[in-house]
Design a protein that fits this description.
Oligomer: heterodimer
Shape of chain A: elongated
CATH class of chain A: Alpha Beta
Radius of gyration of chain B: 20 Å
Number of strands of chain A: 6
CATH class of one domain in chain B: Alpha Beta
Distance between the termini of chain B: 35 Å
Strand content of chain B: 15-25%
Distance between the termini of chain A: 31 Å
Number of domains of chain A: 1
Largest interface: A-B, 44 and 49 residues
Structural class of chain B: alpha/beta
CATH architecture of chain A: 2-Layer Sandwich
Number of strands of chain B: 9
Structural class of chain A: alpha+beta
Largest sheet of chain B: 8 strands, mixed
CATH topology of one domain in chain B: Rossmann fold
Largest sheet of chain A: 3 strands, mixed
Radius of gyration of chain A: 17 Å
Number of helices of chain A: 2
Helix content of chain A: 25-40%
CATH topology of chain A: hypothetical protein PF0899 fold
CATH superfamily of one domain in chain B: P-loop containing nucleotide triphosphate hydrolases
Strand order of the largest sheet of chain B: 1-5-4-6-3-7-8-9
């Protein structure tokens, strides 16, 4: 359940930004979470109310953009979608690849008031 | 710094030397999650109520990564080789440490950081070998983070040209996401676990440099296929280096020791 740590990290980022902007609360928070980031969105949603209680995010709407996994085969240079870290290249079946998308764990934007 | 523990309680994490009493627990390991209940924003309603969109694109683990790099810099400056040992509970991390330390401590200076949710048990085991050790009790947190390790290193003050062994909390999921600033990550699986662990918990194997397969003395009695386990692990991470060992009999430890020695550059 490191999703609770992740949620608390998000709260910290939001608190800082709200203070900087001279606002009082967050209306909307947009997150980008890659499918290969190791974060379970269900677990994050579960941890969310506890993590955000009493913070600027308590009443915020949360929007999560799920980013699919994309890898590039180091042997044949083709890009392909992956569901799992251990998926092989559809062309050569090799496992040597760079994961170029899907590990994101970002606060994309905040709408503050 | 609250990208860290997840415990929701500020004083639950403690970083202690063996024999150090509870009241001496590190007080500066405060996690600022209670702050937001207290501070005022100075919101005087003297500005227009237009909503502002702040485009951030900020990595949620940014704070942890920055501090991890700082730890890495500390290790580099003192020519220290730091290893993050990760595994599920019971795979033999502490036993492997004990064996390694007692066999090599006359050749290499070792320092140990122990991570567990509770108790000083592991630190006491290392302390019995007369190797400097600090115990991090994470409270409810399921992993170590770079902030805890930073405080532990400062307490431990490891010497030049040494090896720092960081035994993470026994958990094959959560510690994967947290860079501690280590130079190498070693994942340990044992033959009493399933040989499909590498694809069941791929994140941990994807970011490791070394995979130690422990308890090979039990192979005749268990349903663990070493080649299958390696094959699965290589699908996740084709660059993994394997060591097949038995901490109990000492079989295979020589190669692991060679690898350790080769990483201490004097």
């Amino acid at each position: 359940m490191h999703e609770l740590s992740i949620a608390l990290g998000i709260v910290e980022i939001a608190e800082k930004e709200v203070l900087k902007a001279g606002a009082s609360k967050v209306e909307l928070i947009e997150l980008e979470i890659g499918k290969l980031s190791g974060v379970e969105i269900e677990a994050l949603n579960f941890a969310w109310p506890q993590a955000t209680e009493g913070s600027v995010l308590e009443t915020a709407e949360k929007k999560i953009y799920v980013i699919k996994g994309v890898a590039e085969c180091l042997d044949c240079n083709i890009k392909f979608d992956i569901e799992n870290i251990y998926d092989s290249c559809p062309k050569c079946n090799g496992y040597l690849k760079n994961i170029i998308q899907g590990k994101e764990l970002r606060v994309k934007a905040l709408t503050v008031d | 710094m609250c990208t860290t523990c997840g415990c929701g309680v500020t004083d639950e994490i403690s970083i202690k030397l063996p024999g150090e009493n509870l009241s001496g627990a590190v007080k500066n390991m405060q996690i600022e999650i209670s702050n937001h209940h207290e501070h005022e924003h100075g919101h005087h309603h003297d500005h227009s109520h237009e909503k502002t969109v702040i485009e951030l694109e900020q990595d949620i683990l940014h704070a942890n990564k920055m501090l991890a790099e700082r730890n890495r810099g500390y290790f580099l400056a003192k020519n220290i080789f730091a290893i993050n040992l990760v595994s599920s509970p019971g795979s033999g991390k502490t036993s492997l440490l004990e064996k390694t330390l007692s066999d090599l401590k006359n050749e290499i200076d070792f320092y140990v950081i122990e991570g567990d949710q509770q108790t000083m048990n592991d630190a006491d085991r290392i302390d019995a070998l007369k190797v400097p050790v600090v115990q991090i009790n994470t409270g409810k947190a399921c992993h170590l983070d770079s902030d805890m390790v930073n405080k532990a290193i400062l307490k431990l003050n490891p010497s030049q040209d040494s090896i720092v062994m960081i035994e993470n909390v026994g958990n094959l999921v959560c510690p994967a996401a947290f860079d501690l600033g280590e130079n190498a990550r070693a994942v340990i699986i044992s033959t009493t676990e399933g040989d499909d662990k590498p694809i069941k918990y791929p994140d941990m194997f994807a970011d490791s440099d070394v995979c130690i397969i422990n308890k090979i003395d039990l192979l005749p009695y268990v349903n663990f296929d070493v080649s299958k386990a390696k094959d699965y692990a290589l699908r996740v991470n084709p660059k993994l280096i394997f060591f097949e060992i038995s901490v109990t009999t000492g079989e295979g430890t020589d190669k692991w020791y060679e690898w350790l020695k080769s990483n201490v550059k004097k």
